[in-house]
Amino acid sequence: MRMLVVDDDDQIREGITHGIKWNELGIDGVEGCKNGAEALARIREIYFDILITDISMPEMSGVDLMRCAKEVFPDIHVILISGYKEFEYAEAGIRYGADDYILKPIHINELMDTVTKVMGKIDNRKENLKNRTMAKELLRNQIMNKIMQDKIEDPLEIQEYLLSNSGFKRIH
User: Fold this and answer.
1) Which of these, 90, 92, 47, lies nearest to 70 by C-alpha position?
2) Contact criterion met (CB below 8 Å) for 45 and 74
3) Which of 5, 83, 103, 148 is the most exposed place for a label (fewest CB within 10 A)?
4) Mean pLDDT, to the nearest integer, of 78-89?
């Protein structure tokens, strides 16, 4: 998994990016950016599974970054961090799909627990996608076998299957 950390505070950004052995949790690529504009440019270049971003930054807020990042990669998971206790920030983040919200000062154990929970969500989504893909493939194979063995005799049923599930397009 890949993770991007965005914070205008160098110490926080570098601490999160390099101060934790993320590879031991299964994150093999961690990068840091100092603002939302830089981060969005990087997101457009490479896929990140997790985005950890400060809410209050110059040029682009973390909430705006999250919205733009989700336009590029709708399945990116976002953890917002902020020094503010006002609920409006968390509420805006949750409304736009943040997975969690952490207040500064950041406690390493809380951050690692939050990232681990998000990684669990990502793993579950991937497993569900894999299972759905396998189920579709099995169904496709069963229907194709029935077609090949002449067990489906209605040409309209065959046509409907081929048009809706097998990538064939109606020409006329």
Assistant:
1) 47
2) no
3) 148
4) 78
Q: How many helices (H) and strands (E) does the chain have?
A: 6, 5
Q: Would the pLDDT of 146 be above 80?
A: no
Q: Maximum CA pair distance of the chain? A: 70
DSSP 6: E
Count CA atoms within 13 Å of residue 144 on its CB side.
10
Q: How confident is the model at residue 134 (pLDDT cuts 50, 70, 90)?
A: confident
Write out the E strands in 7-158: 29-33, 50-54, 77-82, 100-103
Angle at 108 between CA 103 and CA 114, to 5 degrees: 65
Q: What are the pLDDT digits (tens) for 23-81?
A: 999 999 999 999 999 999 999 999 999 999 999 898 899 999 999 999 999 999 999 99
Residues with Cβ < 8 Å from 83, sequence gap 6 or more? Answer: 56, 103, 104
- Cα–Cα distance between 133 and 129 in angstroms, integer? 6
Q: Is the pTM of this model over 0.70?
A: yes
